[in-house]
Specification:
With 113 residues, the protein is mainly alpha-helical. It is 69% helix and 7% strand.
Length: 113
């Protein structure tokens, strides 16, 4: 199923571009990519009868990537707190965190490969 989901996302973004990215519930700032990413993290494919994320996190070759990505994501979370403290609307600040969590699609690509 996840390979099909990956193909639908790739074809949708390649053919429809930005119009595909805005499928979802615009008033909630919830779009197709966020929903797919959440389902991937929570209910993604199983490898060796275990959740794929647990298997990927324990791969020795991924250690350096995970360290740098963890720092990158932590910086994004700190930016969220700073933005809220600076008086920006919380929904806008959290929406901009997408820059920091979209690299998680790397794992979907790694699994599909």
């Amino acid at each position: 199923m996840w390979l099909r989901v990956t193909c639908v996302l790739l074809l949708g973004y390649l053919n429809l571009g930005r119009a595909f990215a805005y499928l979802g519930v615009p008033s909630w700032k919830l779009f197709v990519s966020e929903v797919v990413l959440a389902f991937l993290l929570l209910f993604g494919p199983k490898i060796q009868s275990r959740r794929w994320l647990l298997v990927v996190l324990k791969l020795p070759g991924m250690r350096r990537f995970l360290t740098w990505y963890g720092l990158f994501l932590a910086y994004g979370v700190m930016e969220v707190f700073h933005g809220i403290y600076a008086g920006y609307p919380p929904l806008t600040v959290i929406r901009d965190l997408a820059f920091n969590y979209y690299p998680l699609y790397f794992f979907l690509g790694l699994w599909a490969y």
